[in-house]
Amino acid sequence: MTHSPQHLLEVRGLTKAYGAMKATNDLSFHVDRGEVLGIGGPNGAGKTTLFDLLSGVTPPTAGRILFEGADITGLGASAICHLGISRTFQLNAVFNSQTVADNLKTCAYFGSEKRLVPGLSYDRRSEIRAAEVLDLTGLTDYADVMAGALPVLQLKLLMIGCAIVSHPKLLLLDEPVGGLNPAEIETCAAVFRQLRDFHGTTIVVIEHVMSFMTAFADRIMILHHGAKLHEGAAGSLADNPEVVDVFLGVSGAADSRKGAQAEEVGNATS
Ligand SMILES: Nc1ncnc2c1ncn2[C@@H]1O[C@H](COP(=O)(O)OP(=O)(O)OP(=O)(O)O)[C@@H](O)[C@H]1O
């Protein structure tokens, strides 16, 4: 196999079988540094399973994952996080009985290097990093609120904060704006744009909200039955009749065109 370190992430023939069913099936793709790759597909297409494989939550049945040219296939979740890949989850995955600030300090403390036992107090670096992420995510006013008492938007922002507090090179976002209203989606999108534009974070995002996805992603890959159905520029998505048939539907196609046009207007005026 040729290693291509110019790609931040390279996935080759990735397969995850659960019994006879292949949740991902011989999937190959790459992600370049600084790029935003969007991933879509119908329910059960294998999107979250792909994130589980990339983040070391579960090992693949076959195939290879290269990160910065190094083979990380089969490494555990902590090791992968320490190498610079972080993720969020579809459902709430924070420490409900800790404050927002302590959630971020805990993730900074364990996410940056290998630690087997907690310290008696957080180190200075974790404190500083948590304060930076409170600011970046707009959560400063919620610093002392227990995570379990947060409204939906702030809970999503905290989960994003926990993923970015370790300074990942590659951020995997699993349906980060699902269930949010348009104003809340824009709040999250502003954080993602900051990460991409000012922190150099490469992002892979799974999302069903097509107007957001086509406006934000450079490229979009559509999965179906664990395999690649489509890969191309965000604006080209609605032109593929198979993608419209299997995933977008008529209203999704219209939303994806709207998002792509919004991105073009943004580019033209920026
Ligand atoms: N641990 C598991 N054991 C058995 N089957 C699983 C397991 N995890 C996922 N699957 C199956 O793998 C397939 C892909 O699931 P996955 O959650 O990756 O899809 P998805 O594209 O993320 O769907 P959604 O959009 O609904 O989140 C589904 O058929 C699912 O039931």
UniProtKB/TrEMBL annotation:
InterPro entries: AAA+_ATPase, ABC_AA/LPS_Transport, ABC_transporter-like_ATP-bd, P-loop_NTPase. Residues 9-250 form the ABC transporter domain. Keywords: ATP-binding, Nucleotide-binding, Transport. One of its GO terms (biological process) is L-valine import across plasma membrane. CDD domains: ABC_Mj1267_LivG_branched. One of its GO terms (molecular function) is L-phenylalanine transmembrane transporter activity. GO terms for cellular component: plasma membrane. Gene3D superfamilies: P-loop containing nucleotide triphosphate hydrolases. PROSITE patterns: ABC_TRANSPORTER_2. Pfam families: ABC_tran. SUPFAM superfamilies: P-loop containing nucleoside triphosphate hydrolases. The keyword Transport applies. This is High-affinity branched-chain amino acid transport ATP-binding protein LivF. The lineage of its organism: Bacteria, Pseudomonadati, Pseudomonadota, Alphaproteobacteria, Rhodobacterales.
